[in-house]
């Protein structure tokens, strides 16, 4: 396994700056996920590390060596693409060993590597089949196996699960996680799917328009998003945002909602309050003790299997919350609720950056 260092990396395609002076350190053995919307530059960045896209500035170091101008075959990487790209006339065994045969690896070594990887990916019984006789999930496992037999220092994955159905994605996501635990290899994975990012990554790099917005563990980027973009991109449903004012005493007021935070970063100012849906809890019944005077009207209920997403209208604001259990809830019901103010976030509405607060009070007030 190898460390990957990107230093002031810039990539320009067709006269357009895709990546601008980007710095990033990928530690040995970590599973780093590049996450962001389509067109943010994450795949371009991955292809640049692989040597498939030329960088216009900066440096790419792999294993401590500058590989910025090195041929892809000499970078010590294995890559898995979105499409399976298997040779249809070759068996699974031949597809997996093709690169090794071209490189002149001895037959006995090829056999050892293919057998080892086939065992890890549960492909032992499929080695003599051709791609046409395989399911989508099996084909993608073969594509992953073709990269793993290289025994590379770094493995790159470019949205490898995006062409699979939901169940296959879940199954292969689990297998990839277990595979990383088993190999301990350095892996860099590109996706726009936040579930993949949260479940696979040891660290997530959130990207937007060719720039890094935040780097951190899944818990860090979810619980303490660096800005409004990260806060809104992660989470389903997305974080609730309420624009308002923060006074010198640290009380947030947005429409009819008031939230005592106990701290005012920089004094009185405009602010955006962010609250995750799971941090809003419905009281057992309207007017029940502990409801803190918070009430809203149910506008929509979305069944999600193990939980429901309930949308509330409160003083002209739409808030989403997650509800567990079988309590009967229907549109137009008036419900009481509480907010976990300790886990609320505050953002600057102009820069979008997060305000650091010393901890929020649980005191809330709402008039409807």
TrEMBL record:
Keywords: ATP-binding, Cell membrane, Membrane, Nucleotide-binding, Transport. One of its GO terms (biological process) is carbohydrate transport. Residues 4-234 form the ABC transporter domain. InterPro entries: AAA+_ATPase (IPR003593), ABC_transporter-like_ATP-bd (IPR003439), ABC_transporter-like_CS (IPR017871), ABC_transpr_MalK-like (IPR015855), ABC_transpr_MalK/UgpC-like (IPR047641), Mo/tungstate-bd_C_term_dom (IPR008995), NA-bd_OB-fold (IPR012340), P-loop_NTPase (IPR027417). It holds the Pfam family ABC_tran. GO terms for molecular function: ABC-type transporter activity; ATP binding; ATP hydrolysis activity. The keyword Transport applies. The keyword ATP-binding applies. Gene3D superfamilies: 2.40.50.100, Nucleic acid-binding proteins, P-loop containing nucleotide triphosphate hydrolases. GO terms for cellular component: ATP-binding cassette (ABC) transporter complex, substrate-binding subunit-containing. This is ATP-binding cassette domain-containing protein. It comes from Pseudoduganella guangdongensis.
């Amino acid at each position: 396994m190898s460390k990957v260092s990107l230093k002031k990396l810039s990539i320009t395609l067709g006269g357009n700056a895709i990546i601008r002076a980007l710095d990033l350190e990928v530690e040995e053995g970590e599973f780093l996920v590049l996450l962001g919307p389509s067109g943010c530059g994450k795949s371009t960045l991955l292809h640049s590390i692989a040597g498939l896209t030329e960088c216009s500035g900066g440096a790419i170091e792999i294993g401590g060596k500058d590989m910025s101008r090195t041929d892809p075959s000499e970078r010590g990487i294995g890559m898995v693409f979105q499409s399976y790209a298997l040779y249809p006339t070759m068996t699974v065994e031949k597809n997996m060993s093709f690169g090794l045969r071209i490189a002149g690896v001895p037959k006995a070594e090829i056999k050892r590597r293919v057998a080892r990887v086939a065992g890890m990916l549960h492909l032992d019984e499929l080695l003599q089949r051709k791609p046409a006789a395989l399911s989508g999930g099996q084909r993608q496992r073969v594509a992953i196996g073709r990269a793993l037999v290289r025994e590379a220092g770094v493995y790159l994955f470019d949205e490898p699960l995006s062409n699979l159905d939901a169940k296959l994605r879940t199954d292969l996501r689990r297998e990839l996680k277990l595979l990383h635990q088993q190999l301990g290899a350095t892996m860099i994975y590109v996706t726009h799917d936040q579930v993949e990012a949260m479940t696979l990554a040891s660290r997530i790099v959130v990207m937007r328009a060719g720039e890094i917005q935040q780097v951190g563990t899944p818990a860090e980027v979810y619980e303490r998003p660096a800005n409004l973009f990260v806060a809104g991109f992660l989470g389903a449903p997305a974080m609730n945002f309420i624009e308002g004012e923060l006074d010198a005493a640290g009380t947030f007021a947005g429409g009819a909602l008031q939230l005592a935070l106990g701290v005012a970063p920089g004094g009185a100012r405009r602010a955006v309050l962010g609250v995750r849906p799971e941090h809003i809890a419905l009281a057992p019944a309207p007017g029940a003790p502990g409801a803190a005077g918070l009430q809203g009207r149910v506008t929509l209920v979305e069944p999600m299997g193990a939980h429901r997403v309930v949308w509330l209208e409160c003083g002209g604001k739409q808030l989403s919350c997650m509800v567990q259990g079988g309590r009967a809830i229907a549109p137009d019901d008036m419900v009481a609720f509480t907010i976990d103010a300790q886990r609320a976030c505050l953002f600057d509405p102009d820069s979008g950056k997060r305000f650091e607060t010393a901890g929020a009070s649980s005191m809330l007030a709402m008039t409807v």
